[in-house]
Amino acid sequence: MKPWWPRFIVKPRVRLARPRFGMPSRPPDILVFGVFFFAILFVLGGNIYTLVKSPPAIATGPNNEPIIVYPALDVQLGLEGMVASVIIMIGVIGLGLIYYSSRYVFQPGYALRLMALGVILAGAAFLIATYLIYLKTPSRQGIIPMLDMVQALT
């Protein structure tokens, strides 16, 4: 039997399959690393304390000057947790750059630049964290050896 429409119109012979929309078998590694990294930063920065106690972000002193770091070890302001998280992140990025520079053995100039940047970032994070601990200790006697180095830089 001959079709009644013109010959230039062709009936398609396509088998359509049912589309499958599903979750991938496992999430990408970089996504898992990022979630764990930020969760660890959140915990190490002391932000759990900030969520439970809900302290003010910045306190004011007797003359209405802002106090960003409260000078006691048993009290934390809201901004301190975020600052601590950023400092830890800078230090981890510095250590990661030092590790990443070992992949460029045959490009010593690039490896040296990565390593120098990593040492600068990790060292700066260490010195800033030491200075913040110095500000928080009431007696300021616990870190005298490192204090000389921090005061030389400021």
Write a structural description.
With about 150 residues, this protein is mainly α. The chain has one domain. Helix content is about 55%, strand content about 5%. The protein is built from five helices and two strands; from the N terminus they run H-H-E-E-H-H-H. It has helices at about 30-45, 45-55, 80-100, 110-135, 145-154, and strands spanning about 60, 65. Strands 1-2 form a two-stranded antiparallel ribbon. A hairpin with a 5-residue loop joins strand 1 (about 60) and strand 2 (about 65). Helix 4 packs across helix 5 (about 145-154). The chain is elongated and about 100 Å long. The termini are far apart.
Q: Strand-residue fraction?
A: under 5%
Count of spatially separate domains: 1
What's the number of extended β-strand segments? 2
How much helix, percentage-wise, in residues? 55-70%
Outline the biggest β-sheet. Answer: 2 strands, antiparallel
Topology pattern, helix = H, strand = E: HHEEHHH
Quaternary class = single chain
Shape: elongated
Strand order of the largest sheet: 1-2
Unreliable stretches (pLDDT < 50, length at least 5) are none
Ends apart, CA distance between termini: 96 Å
Structural class: mainly alpha
- Please, what is the average pLDDT? 83
Based on CA atoms alone, the radius of gyration comes out at: 28 Å
- Count of separate DSSP helical elements: 5
